[in-house]
Amino acid sequence: MKKFLSLFIAVLTVTAGYSYVPLSNVHTNLGSFRKDATHGMFYNEMDILTAAPVELMDFSGNNLYTSWSNARNDVATSYNSVLSYRALTLAPVDSTFVFGAIGTPLQFIGINGLRAGLIFQSGFGGKTDYFDLDNNIGNGFESEGYWECETSANMDADAAGVIDRMTTYTSDANNYQESTVTQWNAGAAMKLWILGAGLGINRTSTINIRNTGGKKTYNVSYLNDAGMPAGYPAGTRQGDSGSVLYPDNSVDQSSTIQSDILPQARIKISEIVKLDVGLGLRVQNSYNPTNIRKNGIEVTGSNANLFGASVVYDEYSAIREPGTLGGLDYNDFSIVNLAGTANPASAIYDPAWTGTGVDAPAVTDFSDDRTGVGPIFRAEAKLFFLTGVLNFSSVVQDIDAKITSRDYISLKQYSSATAYDSWVARDYNETVTRKGDCTINEFDLGLKVNLIENEKIRMAFAPSISRDSTLTSYTEKTNRTESTYYDDGVAGNTPGTVGLATRPSAANGEGTWSETTGVSDKIENETINVTYRLPVGFEIPIGKKWTFRAGTAYSFTKTEVLNKTISGRITATTTATPAGAAMLTTTAITSPADNVQKDRSYTEACTLSYSYGIEWKVNDNLTIASNAFLDTNSNLGNDKATLLDLDTYRCLAIQAVFHF
Questions:
Q1: pLDDT at position 393, please?
Q2: Is 650 exposed, middle or buried (0-12, 13-18, 19+ CB in 10 A)?
Q3: Residue 274 per-residue DSSP state
Q4: Which of 148, 168, 159, 304 is nearest to 237 (CA)?
Q5: Sequence-separated contacts (24+) of 126-129 with Cβ below 8 Å
Q6: Gap between the Cα atoms of 456 and 10, Å rounded
Q7: What is the H or E stretch that residue 178 is in?
Q8: Given the DSSP bridges, would you call strands 386-415 and 310-320 parallel, antiparallel or unpaired?
Q9: Which DSSP letter does residue 502 get?
Q10: How far is Cα 50 from Cα 205, in angstroms, rounded to an integer?
């Protein structure tokens, strides 16, 4: 009973305990190692610079913050992330450069009441997602470059080794992702009698640029008559040729820029009762959140075929979307498939209109940039050893997107300089427009309990509930046009069986065929996440120089996904004009109006994470902290780090605070 009373009295006498790190503002990714090790129960002023700027008044002195790391880049093999509070954002955070200063910048002119600071951090960019650009396995993976390969042959086995035929392959392409994370945090606070005022400004940008593009070529040259295939006319020097042109991209892939401005006021009723309230604005820009990019491969080439005493060239061109274009793997369109078939039949230029990899419109252009502005509200109330936190933000972004796709297949045959066959098997164009809005809401409610606060131990826990949701609602209009054309190059008309249900071709006859289609759908997608979280953290001073920290957090998340589509009527108008005949036309509605489809799904997930860290007060001017310091594998060949391994200390993730 005496121990319980002692503990209860210790709790009630807490007057200088720290409040709870703002829940919604944790996403800013700015964190001290103190906050990380205790799961947000105890923190430094850099943690509240923009999240709760008015609380800067609770700190004093001038501080210079920095952090660096060599060890946290290879999380998968060298780090057990379950032991770190940064398990969710370990790689981009612990290897991020941080530098900033917080203090009283106007004290030199006699104004000591203003406290302000600025912190910059960057997760420096780089190239990732490399692909093999030239199919040379020994060359490994790269992001961009030029490759050329020449193969020669002595076709008639001439003893003198005379080269009769040359095949040249070239590749000049690129395919990689560039990613950068940059953040600015600035805040200021000033005491005004019983009131206090604060202002926080934050700008966070996550930019992912996808770069693709380039060309692959193939060319066969007959250097002399011995190099020609049997039966070819004397003097023939040009054989098969082809090229694959990949689309040029330098586009944002789910890039975001978020800017917050949060004015805040404090009403200090007494030493143990205070109220902080902030109302600000958030500007949130999203660039290409659907990760789309141009993917239309342009294929051109010529196949040499022997017909009688002359060489006939089948020339082909196409714009297609291969299913594996994301890898830019040239094996998908090897020259053997492109130019090795006398009558092209690969999926790239197959004129069929159904089947996987055949009916493949390619994205040739798009735009989807969303901007929205909304309010931020934050309130924190402290009473005795309890601190309550409420956060809310809502941003509505306009959706005005457009996607253009094309599927084009053209084949021609030439004998000498006279064309006798011209066929546009498919010329398909599609435009999709989306207009509506995207609403992003965040709501958090938490209560922190400073359980113990004395010179031997500090301990706190904080149950909370968070709800975030994203609702997209837009009207999608799709318009398509498609045409087919065939002319055998011979005088006179050969209409064959061309009609509304039969497209022109060498087998069906000459003529033109076209179809226009239009449809308007209404689409709603919503994702709701509700998270219940209970973190516990503590600090134990070890003498006057050292402090040990640890924490654990349990979280339970329920996710609900709702999708609703109201399909409009699909109206298709088809026309056909057989060679030398009148045009035929028909209009059909191929689906009923207002066809409603709904689906709703639920998922649940539980996580339990642990953290620990240590801080060393070197002297009055320097404090150094490190988290999970015995879990850092300095040498990737080792399974565990050891105290006797000097690389363990060389590769620690370190955060230093300079006091002056």
A1: 94
A2: exposed
A3: E
A4: 304
A5: 126/178, 126/179, 127/176, 127/177, 127/178, 128/176, 128/177, 128/178, 128/179, 129/175, 129/176, 129/177
A6: 12
A7: strand 165-192
A8: antiparallel
A9: B
A10: 16
**Which residue intervals of 341-495 are DSSP H helices?**
none
* CA–CA dist 658, 45 (Å, integer): 13
- Does the pLDDT at position 87 exceed 50? no
**Which is it for the CA torsion 106, 110, 114, 115, positive or negative?**
positive
Q: How far apart are CA 542 and CA 339, in angstroms?
A: 75
Question: What's the average model confidence in pLDDT over 66-82?
Answer: 47
- Bridge partners, 449 (sequence order): 386, 461
Residue 99 burial class via C-beta count within 10 angstroms: exposed 0-12, middle 13-18, buried 19 and up: middle
* Amino acid identity, position 456: K
Residue 337 parent element (H or E): helix 335-339
DSSP one-letter string for 209-226: EEEEEEEEEEEEEE-SGG
pLDDT digits (tens, 9 = 90+) for 369-388: 999 999 999 999 988 889 99
556: its two tokens: 């339970």
Structure tokens at 493: 């008309």
Between 89 and 432, name the one with better pLDDT: 432
**pLDDT(642) > 50:** yes
CA proximity to 185, closest of 47, 355, 70, 66: 47
Helix (H, G, I), strand (E, B) or coil at 383: strand
- Share in percent of the chain as helix, strand, coil (round to 5): 10, 60, 30
Phi-psi region of 651 (alpha: psi -120 to 50; beta: other; left: phi over 0): alpha
Cα–chain-centroid distance for residue 91?
15
| C-alpha closest to that of 134 among 183, 97, 173, 84 | 173
pLDDT on residue 179 = 84
pLDDT (tens digit, 9 = 90+) per residue, 263-294? 999 988 887 788 999 999 999 999 999 888 89
The dihedral formed by the CA atoms of 488, 489, 492 and 495, expressed in degrees to the nearest 10: 20
CA angle 358, 339, 234 (to 5 degrees): 150
Rounded distance between C-alpha atoms, residue 628 and residue 8, angstroms = 32
Burial class (CB in 10 A: 0-12, 13-18, 19+), 305: middle
Buried-exposed string 351-367: b where 16+ CB fall within 10 A, e elsewhere? beeeeeebbbbbbbebe
CB 239 within 8 A of CB 224: no
What are the pLDDT digits (tens) for 212-228? 888 888 889 999 999 99
| CB atoms inside a 10 Å sphere around CB 500 | 13
Does an H or E element contain 574, and which? strand 571-578
Convert 211-231 to b/e letters by CB count within 10 Å (16 or more is b): bbbbebbbbbebbeebbbeee
Residue 202 φ/ψ, nearest 5 degrees: -135, 140
Instruction: Identify the pLDDT of residue 432.
Output: 97
- The token pair that represents 292 in the structure block: 């789309």
Task: For residues 591 and 484, give the distance between their C-alpha atoms in angstroms, rounded to a whole number.
Answer: 24
What's this model's pTM, rounded to 2 decimal places?
A: 0.82
- Is the pLDDT at 138 greater than 50? The verdict is no
Q: Alpha-carbon Rg of the chain, whole angstroms? A: 34
Q: Is 324 helix (H, G, I), strand (E, B) or coil?
A: coil
Q: Give the pLDDT score at 16.
A: 35
Chain centroid to CA 122: 17
Do the beta carbons of residue 415 and residue 310 sit within 8 Å? yes
Rounded to an integer, what distance in angstroms lies between the CA atom of residue 115 and that of residue 106?
8
pLDDT of residue 335: 43
Confidence of residue 639 (pLDDT cuts 50, 70, 90): low
Which residue's entry shows tokens 């594996």? 324
pLDDT at 337 over 60: no
